Amino acid sequence: MPMKLGQAVGHANSVLMLAFVALLVLIPDAHRVVALAGLGLCLLIAVTARREQYARLDRDDAWFCAALMLYGAVWLLDVWRSGHWPVIERAGIRALPIWPLLVVPLLIGLRCYPPNPRMLWWGACLGASGAGLIALYERLVLGAERASNGINAIPFGNLSLLLGSLALMAVLWSLRYRSPRHASLLVLALLAAALGLLGSLLSGTRGGWVALPFVMLLVFRAARDVLPRRYLRFGIGGLAALMLVIVVLPHSGVGERVGQVTSDAQRYWQQGNAGNSLGMRLELWRAGAIMVAEKPLFGHGERHMEDALRALAEEGRVYDRVIIHVQLHNEIIDTAARRGLAGVLSLILLYAVPLWLFWKKLRRSRHAPDLQILAAAGMMVPVAFFDFGLTQSMLRDLRGLSGYLGLCVVCWAALRAREEALAAAPRSGSCGLHPGTNIEDDEDRFFVQRSRSRS
After folding, report:
1. Domain boundary among 306, 330, 354
2. For residue 298, what are the domain limits?
3. Do 126 and 168 share a structural domain?
4. Residue 258 falls within a domain, yes or no?
5. DSSP class of residue 151?
6. pTM for the whole structure
């Protein structure tokens, strides 16, 4: 690959990473546009890349790709046998099963010419800030009951929370280097973290709040080697105080939503009333359990699951209003009802393989806090989406599926790029890491030199 072309591909990958993360919840069709641009770039890489580029792929990348391909293949086989593509609420028929397969060449392209890891942090900060500002505008100016940016409020709130949590990792990244050039990122990351969490709260997405303690544990795990303990305690206390203030504010609607959960639970368990948000979910889960018991191995299939749900409602075995839903509001139950245990296995691997790969990098990077921050950020994605999936089938949503796949892949590409930069630094005089030097200044030079050496 010519020198200038190799550098251009590396820069293009960085721009694509920034655009995807920043625009995921801000612009309706941004995830499609960025994905198509990424696929076009991958075709360019496939045609022009040399053997040394592909040699950088290793067993961990193979595991990642295998999990993606298995999930997509099982879903496509189910579409083939049932004769129906997924029907998405408010969007109609969509070819979602193809997305995991299309992400494989994206992962390979990002690994062959990795992006600059800082683009992940800038993208998360811009995306979280935008989501929070949109939520404030819709609630305070437009008077909307739930902030949503014109999409389903649940994916909007869940992704806002995840982007805000990634912005907290950007705070740690900025504090890790403590240089003037990172001051702007630090200020933006602090603001973005607050706005992202605020966007989730104003969306009224209660299921996403379940994920908050777990992602905060990952933040704490990454921060303990970066910040003194007194700063950690101050940060945890400040975050708890901020969340408490937001909860008690009448205009936030959070307290009302929490009280509604208690009321719904009492009416369901004491009176058998399923005509509320919680009762409806419990009935959908019960219907899913019945359908899984009927066809445990391969499930009822796409679209036929809805027919089976309607039949249960007509027979009076579940609450009759469940038929208004096109999903069972639980990722595992919905997958099991449609694709059986085979589908559940592919789903578990889709969560578990990236989580295991990021955990392995976190455990082996005890003396590299920046790698720990990136690895913990990567772990956030499957952990958060698993928690989101307890009350919502996020992977049957356009932004939910693209968000999970895309964020997993860009976090992995950023981590491996940083890992490679640190590994190559002792062998390069211009990228040498010595006490008192700014590691990221050397990293920028490393990315340029790598593009030239591999061209």
Report:
1. 330
2. 263-330
3. yes
4. no
5. S
6. 0.87
